[in-house]
Structures are given as structure tokens and as C-alpha cells.
Amino acid sequence: MRELDPGARRQMERYLGEIRTSLQGTPLDAEEIAADVRDHLRESLDRAGGTHSVSTDEMKDALDALGPPDRWLPPDTGGMYQSVLGWTHGREGPVAALVLVLTVAGAGSFPWIGPIGLLPAWLVARAVSGAYRRAGVSLGSWQWLVNPPLWIVAVGLAVLLAVGPFPVLAELTGEVFGDRPNWIGGVLGIGLWWIVLGFLVRGVPHAFRWLLHPLGDGLLARHGFPLAGTGVALSVAAGAALWLTG
Amino acid sequence: MQAFRDNWETQLRRGIVEFAVLAALRDTERYGYDLVRTLSRRPGLVVTEGTVYPLLNRLKREGIITSELRASSEGPARKYYRLTSAGRETLAWMHERWSELVDAFDQILEDSDA
């Protein structure tokens, strides 16, 4: 096999890890499938030719051709989603009604227990949505009752992830930088947080897709780069502002 | 409407890809990469390369295909897949069902045109 750049090797190992993760809970032999895919990549990259080591761009092209493992949708593989599908298929109406009731109850309980009240609705909706999506079966019009808690939680989580730490960071950096405006320190903290978040998205995009479904369904590992880059820009700008106001 | 069509197409292709894998192994054994490329080059199948490997693993579990690691003159050893006797029977059965299905639809369409 052609040598791999360190970045290309990390890409490949990360992809093989996603295979193992996405096949957990199924009867399939994830290790054997990962080994088969490794052999496929070797063959594909060797046939592409060249004596230079495989770059991250070449590896990305080869992995794009294989497709995201969590969207392979292995048919009839059993597991939790298959069980959910078996129970809900043909009963979409009652299931959608259950989600609606749980959503209304969760919204009604918000003043007392906050967003935790939406957890039951989100769990049921997430299981149903995941099962139908894996099976390639549409929920049809019932999706309008099943999806709301997913969107509410996804948007809320996205906002929380993006700017949730701001007040705490502003407070902390205010203590560090004394008489300078807290918000500048908050922006610096957010910038540093977005760098971390960018690397997390880069490393485990499937985790973010799962958590932020359906809002984050299109999130890919490469989106971590612009996120981290924006974090760098914010950090540099805030750092400059702190220096200028110092 | 588009969601309905997409769903129908997904269901249709899911069943056909298994048939296609067995048909591709009917006359010859193939190693994984060769099999994947053979299938993915057929535009009508719309096979994402990666989806073939879980399918091969499942067909092995069902005893429909078997695999064997064999030394290769072109590099590292390759895993070759071939149909088992149960696989050949399954392929023949699928072929019969497919022919029946095509005949049935032809008749429905003829009746509609009449």
C-alpha cells in the first residue's frame, strides 16, 4: 500500500472508527467490515497511481466514494432501531399522538423543571425518527407531530453549544482582565471555545449529527475547520481589543 | 410527493442490490474491491460503495456467500467471495420471482393500455 500522510492516516482511522460505532448493536461483524473497507481503500488508492504518499485530499475522495458509515443503512440488521420499527410500523398515528402529548406536557412543565421536561418527547421522537430513517421508510404526514420536539431540542442545543458559555466566560475573563469590558473577555472565551468545538466536530461529526438531528444532519467533519477558524478569528480580534483597551 | 417517490425508490433498490450482488457472483468469484466497483459502475443501481460491505457480511452470515483469503501477485492477500450452493439456489429463486414480477407488471400495463 502507498504510504499515507499522517493526516490521511488519521482520516482513515477515524472513518474506520465511525464504521465500528455505526454498526454497534447490530448482528454484523463490525471489525470484519472495517477490515474489508481498509483493504478496499488500499486497493482504491494503489490503483489511483502515483508513488507519492497519499494526501488528505486523496483520502477524502476515497472516503467520500464510500459514503458516511452511519448512512449505509444495513437492511434487516436488527438492533434497537429495528425493534422500534417493528413496534411502531403501522401504529404511526398513536405514536405521533404520544409524542405530541409528551411535547405539550414538556412545554407545560417548562416553568418548573425547564427543558428537562422535553426529554421524554425527544427520546421517543428520536428513536422513531432514527428507526424509520435507517429503514428508509417515510413517516409521511405524521412527521409533523414527531419532529417538533426534535427541532426544539436541536435548535436549543445548537444555541447552547454556540454561545451558551458566553456569560460564564465573560464573568471569568472579567475577573482576569479587571477593568476592561467583560464582553471582550467573553468573546475571547467564545473564540477559544469554538476552536475546541471545531476540533470536536472534526473528530466526532456523527455524535453531533445524532445529537442535533434533524438540524445537524448535514454536518460533516470538514465543517469543523471553518468553525475552528472562526474561533481563531474571534480570539485574535478579542485579544487585540483587550490589548488596545489595556 | 417527492418524499413518497424517494421512499419507493429506496425500498426498490434495497431489494435489488442483494439480487445484483448474487448475480455478479454467479459465474465467477470476485474480491471485494472488484465486486464493489462492478456494482457501483451500474448507474441504475445507485450503489454507494460502502453499503456493499455490510451487505456482504450479512450474506455471509446467512450462508449465501462464503469468502476465502488468497495470496495475490499484485499485492497483499485478497478476500474472494463466491456463492455457496444455498446461494445458487437463492439466486435462482430470486431470478424466478423477478421474472414473475416483470411479467405481472407487463400484464398490468397491457391491461391498462387496452
Q: Strand content of the residues of chain B, in percent?
A: 15-25%
Summed up, the helix count of chain B is 4
Most strands sheet of chain A: none
Could you state the order of secondary-structure elements of chain B as H and E?
A: HEHHEEH
Query: How large, in whole angstroms, is the Cα Rg of chain A?
Result: 22 Å
State the total count of DSSP E strands of chain A: 0
Q: Secondary-structure element order of chain A, as H and E?
A: HHHHHHHHHHHH
Overall spatial form of chain A: flat
Task: Give me the Rg of chain B, rounded.
Answer: 17 Å
Number of strands of chain B: 3
Distance between the first and last residues' Cα of chain B = 28 Å
- Which assembly state applies to the chains in this document? heterodimer
Structure class of chain A: mainly alpha
**Stretches of chain B where pLDDT falls below 50 for ≥5 residues?**
none
Features:
heterodimer, A: 246 residues, mainly alpha, 72% helix, flat, B: 114 residues, alpha+beta, three-stranded antiparallel β-sheet, 4 helices, 3 strands
